[in-house]
UniProtKB/TrEMBL annotation:
Gene3D superfamilies: 3.10.310.30, inorganic pyrophosphatase (n-terminal core)
Official protein name in the record: Cyclic-di-AMP phosphodiesterase GdpP
Keywords, comma-separated and alphabetical: Hydrolase
Species this protein is from: bioreactor metagenome
Originating gene: gdpP_14
GO molecular function terms attached to this record: hydrolase activity; nucleic acid binding
Amino acid sequence: MRPTSVLVVVDTQRVGSLVAPKLLEMASRVVVIDHHRRGADHIDNATLHFLEARASSTSELVTEMLQYFDSNLRPPALVCGTLLAGITIDTKHFAFNVGSRTFEAAGYLRKNGANTSMVKQMFQDDMESFGDVATTVRSAEILKGGVALASVGEEVKNAPLIAAKSADELIGIKGIEAAFVIGRDGSSISVSGRSLGTINVQIICERLGGGGHLTMAGAQMEDMELDEAETLVRNEIEKYTQEIIKAD
């Protein structure tokens, strides 16, 4: 890295979420672009913070930034397709946390060559992953308040990804208001939380050391067995449910 290099961090403000946190110390200038609420261990040495918690996704923010550059700028079709994929996955196919800005960004990307068929193909599962998601969904326990809780089997590959996809599928089932799915990722445990909006999964995940949004959040826990993590998540769900009941 040269002295003049700029480090751009996207879709997170948490030092603990960075793949290579040492780069923060090496970079003289840091730019952070994110749509999550600021957490306790946020990056504090950034030259520029572009933070907008009301945006659907970081891809939406980047798309808006592109439109402030030279009016003759035309991003490559592949870049536009990738940004559209980011918006699609964060909004669950334009179902959650969507505003007029989201559709304006999508329109700009489509006009500049984003291929919707390519975006669809990016989200295709292989048969093994599809089966793992189905097994995880089938094993879910429905807790009080319509909250589903499930764990991905220890033997499953790419457990964090399967956990996220399983949580997405669970909130599509009638009677389920929110879902939490747990999966092992090496020495850590990954938690994926999803909600239709009546239950704030962000609050629960923040209590587990993570964060996110009202309808989509996550957390990671270190040095813990899967059953221990499940008990911890269950306790936080029950605590949150009791708080809601008392508030009503």
